[in-house]
From TrEMBL:
It is a multi-pass membrane protein. GO terms for molecular function: bile acid transmembrane transporter activity; sodium-independent organic anion transmembrane transporter activity. It comes from Chelonoidis abingdonii. This is Solute carrier organic anion transporter family member. One of its GO terms (biological process) is sodium-independent organic anion transport. Keywords: Cell membrane, Disulfide bond, Glycoprotein, Ion transport, Lipid transport, Membrane, Transmembrane, Transmembrane helix, Transport. It catalyses: L-thyroxine sulfate(out) = L-thyroxine sulfate(in); 3,3',5'-triiodo-L-thyronine(out) = 3,3',5'-triiodo-L-thyronine(in); L-thyroxine(out) = L-thyroxine(in). The chain crosses the membrane at residues 12-31, 51-74, 86-107, 158-181, 202-225, 245-269, 313-333, 349-371, 383-401, 508-532, 544-565, 598-622. Belongs to the organo anion transporter (TC 2.A.60) family.
Length: 669
């Protein structure tokens, strides 16, 4: 009561804009939460379905395929559709896709820790066999490794397709959130507030999602996949073992529920909002609906030609593609790299990314948006700032190669049975004189660590003849292949699990500090670089430009990067696991030096190209948006002459961009 109709309209618009910003920030949180969780679970999915890293890359790339299917259509028609409701529908599709990915867990049954069985005359199973003590005159393991009958009927190996299809649906649902949401915000907000809303309220708040997603991933990775269904005390492996499978499915249930909640507010929001500062003029169509950005299908090719004809946007597009490649490849295999290189469990690697790396990135994004607003950076200032921060981060990135770590010493793979390191890793020297009469199974991987610090593929390959203890505490004795100075041959022992590499553990804090510093510097220039796209295209093409940028980044960066990263990483594998019914499974041991060179080398090469494109982009922006010195002199002379009435041509007619530049408007092309 007591409020006029205009005041009520202003209040209604203010509430709607605040609700939209809050709902959009939560949708950014939901997609970041779900996406980061899936990234953190890539190793667990690889082990659960016994697939290679390249197949994991295909599953990861299915998200980008989903984006590709609808991104360009959503972005092009963004001004014609009810953007809040389209975003709501996208969140629902994300929720459905996440729940679809969970289905294999309930179809596959319990996970088998070991993927082979021993013949009945030896024992009833591998676990019970390990609890027995064989004859002291024979090697510890002398059983025939056989596969169960009817394996050709087992279809669980192909259930990863459910995860692929679910991830594809998540990509479809995520497609409208960024282009439609950001264009909606940029339409109703003032120019000086746009970067603040996008950088601080949306992107920065949305980065909380990945942080919590990685924390959830760390928690689930530390739980056994069949949590609540098996006696955890009976397990003979721990989360550091390369055969450990975490409860990957549990977090997906939570992610699906969050995506569903994110869709609810958008159903109640209006088609559009008036520009900030013009809330009372609701009857003005230009004010009510923002800029007239209605496009039609016949205008598609001319519009695309106009957009790609802008050299600043074209270079920015190439820069986005290379950055996507390096970033997606880095994030997808970062936890695997930490595990193999620094002897860190996957759950701990995920946790450290969630509590250290991502909060630092959020801080950098926040500071980047704040710097734009505080210093009112012109597009040239944004380009200079983005270029400087990226080059600085790239130079620091080269220091990653100094984080050296020794290759895991595995008898017969990386070192000889006498402990001599091998220059190459042949696969035909696993049998030595100390275990030649043991009939060891070549495709089995149940590692034990000898007293000499060397890992053996199984207790059989170590030549062990007896054991004491149960479960994780089992110790093998009388190991003829474990040679230790001061002890007679055959009197050494071994314990379950592979040996630790102390030198790797010591270099890990240095690597983590370097990684965090690079992330902060890159994030500082992230928001200014992103705003270059908005300021370099005409206002009616903002939504379309965001869509084309995201589309090209997805199809040429997000889609191929995890596949070729994974395929090259697979080439560094030294020992593959074996599926229950035969065939190659996931990798157990990598050549860590080759892994490091491939992984870090690819990232460094892609970012070197980004440095070149950043410099090119900066030069183009300087030439296009800053008037030459002689023009400035002519401007002054024109002003003087116009004051004296000596000329009839105004400065704005002579120099059409002069007024825009004087007003600090960057959209003049």
């Amino acid at each position: 009561q007591g409020l006029s109709e205009e005041d009520i309209n202003v209040l209604r618009v203010y509430c709607s804009s605040s609700i939209f910003l809050g709902a959009l920030a939560f949708s950014f949180f939901a997609k970041g939460f779900s996406g980061s969780y899936m990234k953190s679970m890539s190793t667990q999915i690889e082990r659960r379905f016994e697939i290679s890293s390249s197949v994991v890359g295909i599953i990861d790339g299915s998200f980008e395929i989903g984006n590709l299917m609808v991104m360009i259509l959503v972005s092009y028609l963004g001004s014609k559709v009810h953007r809040p409701k389209v975003i709501a529908a996208g969140c629902l599709i994300m929720s459905f896709g996440t729940f679809l990915s969970v289905m294999p867990h309930f179809l596959m049954g319990r996970n088998q820790i070991y993927h082979g069985y021993f013949s009945p005359h030896c024992s009833k199973g591998i676990i019970s066999f390990l609890l027995q003590i064989s004859s002291s005159e024979s090697c510890f393991q002398k059983c025939k490794y056989v596969f169960p009958t009817g394996c050709e009927k087992v279809a669980s190996s192909y259930l990863w397709i459910f995860v692929l299809m679910g991830n594809l649906l998540c990509g479809i649902g995520e497609a409208p959130i960024m282009p439609l949401g950001m264009s909606y915000v940029d339409d109703f907000s003032k120019e000086e507030n746009s970067a603040f809303y996008i950088g601080n309220k949306l992107i920065s708040c949305g980065m909380v999602g990945p942080t919590l997603g990685f924390l959830l991933g760390s928690f689930c990775a530390n739980l056994w996949v069949d949590v609540g269904m098996v006696d955890l005390e009976s397990l003979t492996i721990n989360p550091k073992d390369t055969r450990w499978v975490g409860a990957w499915w549990l977090g997906l249930v939570i992610c699906g529920a969050v995506s569903f909640l994110a869709s609810l507010p958008f159903w109640f929001l209006p088609y559009s909002l008036p520009k900030e500062g013009d809330e009372k003029n609701l009857n003005n169509p230009q004010s009510r609906f923002g800029l007239n950005t209605q496009l039609s299908f016949p205008d598609f090719l001319p519009t695309l030609k106009k957009l790609l004809g802008n050299p600043v946007f074209l270079v920015y597009l190439l820069l986005t593609i290379l950055q996507y490649n390096s970033m997606v490849g880095l994030i997808t295999f970062e936890t695997k790299f930490m595990e193999q290189q620094f002897n860190v469990s996957v759950s701990r690697a995920i946790f450290l990314i969630g509590v250290i790396l991502l909060p630092i990135t959020i801080l950098g994004m926040f500071l980047g948006g704040f710097i734009i607003k505080k210093f009112k950076l012109h597009i040239t200032g944004m380009a200079k700032f983005g270029c400087a921060t990226f080059i600085a981060a790239y130079l620091l990135n080269l220091l990653y190669f100094t984080c050296d770590c020794e290759v895991l010493q595995v008898a017969g793979l990386t070192v000889s049975y006498s402990g001599v390191k091998q220059s190459s890793f042949p696969k035909n020297n696993l049998i030595a004189s100390c275990n030649s009469d043991c009939s060891c199974v070549l495709n089995q991987w149940d590692p034990v660590c000898g007293d000499n610090g060397i890992t053996y593929m199984t207790a059989c390959f170590a030549g062990c003849k007896s054991s004491i203890g149960t479960g994780k505490n089992m110790v093998f004795h009388n190991c003829s292949c474990v040679q230790v100075e001061g002890l007679e041959s055959g009197n050494s022992s071994a314990v379950l699990g592979q040996c630790q590499r102390e030198s790797c553990t010591k270099t890990f804090p240095y690597f983590l500090a370097l990684l965090s510093t690079c992330a902060l510097i890159l994030a500082l220039g992230g928001t200014p670089t992103y705003m270059i796209m908005f300021r370099s295209v005409s206002p009616d093409l903002k939504s379309f430009a965001v869509g084309i940028d995201a589309l090209c980044g997805r199809i040429l960066g997000g889609l191929p990067a995890p596949i070729y990263f994974g395929a090259l990483i697979d080439q560094t594998c030294l020992k593959w696991g074996t599926k229950r019914c035969g065939g190659s499974g996931s990798c157990r041991v990598y050549d860590t030096k080759a892994f490091r060179n491939v992984y870090l080398g690819l990232i460094a090469g892609l970012r070197a190209g980004c440095c070149f494109l950043y410099i090119t982009l900066f030069i183009l922006i300087i030439k296009r948006f800053r008037p030459a010195s002689n023009e400035l002199i002519d401007l002054k002379s024109t002003e003087v002459s116009s004051r004296k009435g000596s000329t009839s041509v105004s400065k704005n007619e002579t120099f059409p961009c002069a007024k825009a530049l004087a007003a600090n408007e960057e959209t003049c092309l």
